[in-house]
Amino acid sequence: MATIQFNDVERTFRQGNRDVVALRGVNLQVGAREFVAIVGPSGCGKTTCMRMAAGLDQPTGGCVMVDSEVVTRPGPERAVVFQQFALFPWKTVWDNIGFGLHGLGIAAAERTKRIRQHIALMGLEGYEKAFPHQLSGGMQQRVAIARVYVLDPKVLLMDEPFGALDAQTRVVMQEELVRLTRRHPRTVLFITHAVEEAVYLADRVVVMTRRPGTVRDIIAIKPVREAEGWDALTRIEDVMEQPSFVQLRARIWKQLREPHDRGAH
Ligand SMILES: Nc1ncnc2c1ncn2[C@@H]1O[C@H](COP(=O)(O)OP(=O)(O)OP(=O)(O)O)[C@@H](O)[C@H]1O
């Protein structure tokens, strides 16, 4: 199964007549079927990390590897979900979900089966013929997630996928994603501003420093989640009330707010 590796990654951008070091010495591994969330201050380079894993940007030092291969360009084995749902407005839910399957040369009967499965998986039954503009933001993001899950990619890269949703819809989507990824684990790199979201969703949370962004700490959530039985709780608010959850959240917040030796200005 897939792994994502950041090996001593650096990214410097030219801004006007000066070089800005956005990322320096980023080392990180996402294991097979592991869900890793990155949190960090605004501008610390989270999106840049994601873009490099997607092959949309290149490091200026070090390398990003997926399954031991250096990433040099986008590829179907690395699916990306952005904050903006990026659905085709002129295609129905069914056709949006099925779009990527055409390019993979999958037979029609198999395509139909997979689309139907993923419509059921994301609770989109009855909306097969709807167009994106007829759906709420949450429903559109379900379609966007179904559209990448159906391709069975090696890795899923999610950049603030719920950032544009209202608070209530966001909670529902977080619960759905937990349900989906616990039942059908994938290798996921997930970027978010929201500490609670990271602790709720991820197996490990990576805390980044201010610019130049680097990994400040990596916090294992999964052992706590399993020991404390969070998965038996269906509602996010019940999980968030657990003392173990509150402790982890506080620990991450503290790291985000306190200056870091290397990152301190
Ligand atoms: N194409 C670019 N050209 C110049 N500078 C860039 C470019 N892309 C990113 N940067 C700079 O790199 C730094 C990291 O940006 P990035 O968008 O990765 O941060 P982020 O952590 O995702 O921020 P936010 O949380 O606010 O979305 C920022 O200082 C940004 O200005």
TrEMBL record:
Belongs to the ABC transporter superfamily. Pfam families: ABC_tran (PF00005). PANTHER family: ALIPHATIC SULFONATES IMPORT ATP-BINDING PROTEIN SSUB (PTHR42788:SF13), TAURINE IMPORT ATP-BINDING PROTEIN-RELATED (PTHR42788). The keyword Transport applies. Keywords: ATP-binding, Cell membrane, Membrane, Nucleotide-binding, Transport. It comes from Verminephrobacter eiseniae (strain EF01-2). This is ABC transporter related. Transmembrane segments: none annotated. InterPro entries: AAA+_ATPase, ABC_transporter-like_ATP-bd, ABC_transporter-like_CS, ABC_transporter_ATP-bind, P-loop_NTPase. Residues 4-235 form the ABC transporter domain. It comes from the Bacteria. GO terms for molecular function: ATP binding; ATP hydrolysis activity.
